[in-house]
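User: Hi! I'm a student and our assignment asks us to look at how structure tokens line up with a sequence. Could you show me two examples?

Assistant: Happy to help. In each example below, the sequence comes first and the structure tokens follow. Example one:
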Amino acid sequence: MKFLNSFNKFMERWMPLVTPTSLVIGVLLEPYIGKYIYIVPWAFAFMTFSGSLGSGFSEMKKVALNPLPLIIVMFILHVWMPLIAFGVGKLLYASNPYFITGILLVFVVPTGITSLVWVSMYRGNNVLGLSIILVDTLTAPFLIPLSLKVLVGTAVEINALGMFKDLIFMILVPALLAMFLNQLTKGNIKKTLAPKLAPFSKAAIVVVVSLNSTKIAPYFKDFHLVLLGIAITILLLAITGYVWGWLVSKAIKADYRDTVSITVNAGMRNIATGAVLASQYFPGAVMFPAMVGTLFQQVLVSFVLAFLSKTEPESNKKDTI
């Protein structure tokens, strides 16, 4: 158990490098591990279950009293940023609908579950962050296929029903099960089972990213300027998500804690979801934009929060010690 705890702390500390390293592993070992990609949906379902054990239905009641931040973040995540991503993709890659779909896929997936770790580390509003994750996770099986069907359904074949079923299995069922157990144990499962599963959940991240990366190995081995342009496009769009979250938090005069939660959740994405869907339903050209986002997401959020932390009032630091 001591080893597992040490492993978990190590993974949390070096998370900005874990996902890029896992991507490189997948590309290099593609001939040997590519055949095991069928494991990915199961590993992802486990990650969702483990990451949702700290969530209970009662948290949503608190946010219901002040739903504006939640509504704003959901708007940024599932209306504003998808439209911007689609517009940019259409402008830059009009001749390649698969690249457009891949770029869009990155910005229709739900907010990242790991965002709660960052919100907690930088003393943001955990209840708000958790509620955003809960609502976004539970609505993802409906919103993702719908967004893709509406925006690119005429250019690319979208198996909306199959996608919906996979998202139910990977996200909705494990999340609801974890939340039910949290409610049943009055939150105690967060202290008992969650810490034991945490190291395995971190290992699952490596499994998911590495196996998904095997599908884009040919693109990295034959890397060219167009792919570099896509990577830069994804990076700039990702930065835009954080900027919009921060601007909106200022517009509604949110305090520091709410600003952290709004900014992080508006910017972070559960890119693994997009990568899994891309690997199951689309060719490698869609997979590349979805996977390249894993290279810089954790690094990017660390820079954003380093900037925000400079505005943290001393009273907030004392209140949360």
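Example two works the same way, sequence first and then tokens:
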Amino acid sequence: MPPQNPVLILGAGVNGACTARELILNGVPVWIVDKFDIAYGATAKSSRLIHGGLRYLEYGDTALVHESLDERARLLKLAPQFVKAVKLYIPIRQRFGGLLSAGLKFTRLTRTGLGAAAAKALGGERGLETVRMGLRMYDFLSRGGGLPSHSVVRVGEAGPKVDSNKYRWLAAYYDAQMLWPERFTLAVLEDARREAEQKGLEFKVLTHHHARLVDGTVEIRPTDASNDSPAGLTIKPSTIVNATGAWGDHTLRDLPAPTKRLFGGTKGSHIFTHQPALVRALNSEAVYAEADDGRLVFILPFEDSVLIGTTDERFDSTPDQAVSSEEEVAYLVEMVNEVFPDVKLMVADVDAHYSGVRPLPYQAEGTTGSIPRGHWIESTATDGIPIDTLIGGKLTTCRALGEETANRILTRLFVARSVSTQERPVPGSDGLSQDTALNDQFWQSVAAATGFEIETVMACGKLVGSRVREVLGGLTESAERELVAGTRFPRGFVRHIIETEWVEELGDLVERRLMLTDHRALPEVTLRELASFFPDADTEASVRDVGQRLRKYYGVTVERELAAAVS
């Protein structure tokens, strides 16, 4: 018999979702509560890379790199609808340099103030031989991962068109991208829900709610209700998992379950641009470059645009206050122009931006780059209820962290693990792979079977993977097959998303279900039609509030004129 009391997971990001799936698969009921929405925080605000952590290798975190490379291989195989291999190039100016500084970092001496100062003094840019040394180790740790080994070419022979007056070589290696972590998180939750239904387990996902612990019972209320109002729901959990990421200390304080400071998050901002010259220069490949000031920048292909990041600044406010500053945007534009001076990127070319806070462990000294990027579980207890707080973690290792957390809880509950996710496909992966030609055949077959244009099939498919055949195939009424104005999404598809993906309000749908935040503008008619799916809400207020949020947090404007489809 499964435990009668559910595990309460606070936080519906990717780590909370993966933990929930692990527990449900092994017969443990779960409630998930999030103050905001699914994948609201760092899950949606990362560089969207599935990577082994070449930078972490430099800091001597070989265990983290090995784990990350194993998880990268799993995700490429088990979630091909979301994860694709990408070739990255490191531009290099000189043959030698940076070896002494790299040695200090590898031995972790830079995690002290003195060590960081010494590394800076001895530093200098990484030369070809230093980079080769790191990439050889990266290849060794990733052997069997299914991706090619590194290579080196002269600038101009192959790869992106970086500044040939500045750089002499390009060192190439492979990692992977997950363009839509929000959609991956929803697929993981869908897997948990299916299993819960089959096993007859309780599984709840409550977004826009907050939880408070009172005399051994957790009271759960909507976020717009005060603590003095009657509790909407109550639960006596067997365990509480604090998976709220950079909100972790705030969560413990508000429960209340006071403890020492655990988190010291850093803010990372990113920008999108569709500037044609940069798109051409990048040529669907990626660049990982060291700027003149020693900081690192990713310049990544993102569908028909380019994603550029990231900054790394200490941030002490609540994570929902993180916004890309004008200085950060200008800095990222400058970094691009250092690598690609001929494209002459300008701030005016930036179409959208976003910013999030990494849930890193608190570390008073050292540079932000030297803060450990692994994951840890801090176990405490309040009112006799165990509380496991997840610290750190990154997109690549979300499954592993969920597995580790679940193992700790299963042991505590005297439940034997019966199911592993190490070889478990993510819903929507059937029929898809890393073979682009085979995937194109799949999309074409769906288009033929459902009667929708290939552009519509692929727009929906990027969100739900191979499940698109089932969803679009079920849309038989003409009104449900009509496209929402300004998008490639049929109305029936949008309705399916709302009814099955825990959508509570218009902002959830726009930002984290349909993924409409990476273009410069969103037609007002699109917002209004999407708002019509929420008949109980005030349309004018919803459109206004979402428009203001898009402008502030993404730099996206709402335009009155209907332009090309944004999906």
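Here is something you could point out in your write-up. Residues 13 and 43 are 6 Å apart (CA to CA).
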